[in-house]
Amino acid sequence: MSAQKAMTIRLSAEQADQLETVASVENQPVSEVIRAAIATHIETVTNDAQFQEGLRERIERAKGLLR
């Protein structure tokens, strides 16, 4: 894994309990379950056509700021 960046998230008590249960059953650290969920979400979102269009629009707006 490349350089890491620490982040903080806030979960409801119910979400935290569910996450800890999933991690325990899968015999994995909670942080690994979170990383896997984030990777899956990013993969899903970045393959979405609406996301891609929004990304293109944002890039075009940003280009307008370049000198």
Verbal overview:
By secondary structure, this protein is mainly α. It contains three helices and no strands. The protein is elongated.
**Count of helical regions:** 3
Order of helices and strands: HHH
Low-confidence stretches: none
How confident overall, as mean pLDDT? 95
How large, in whole angstroms, is the Cα Rg?
A: 17 Å
| Secondary structural class | mainly alpha
Q: Describe the biggest sheet?
A: none
What is the number of strand segments?
Answer: 0
First-last Cα distance: 35 Å
- Percent of residues in β-strands: under 5%
The helicity comes to 55-70%
In one word, what is the shape? Answer: elongated
Q: Which features would summarize this protein structure in a list?
A:
67 residues, mainly alpha, 67% helix
What is the element layout, followed by pairings?
Layout lengths: L12 H13 L4 H17 L2 H15 L4
Brief write-up:
With 67 residues, the protein is an all-alpha fold.
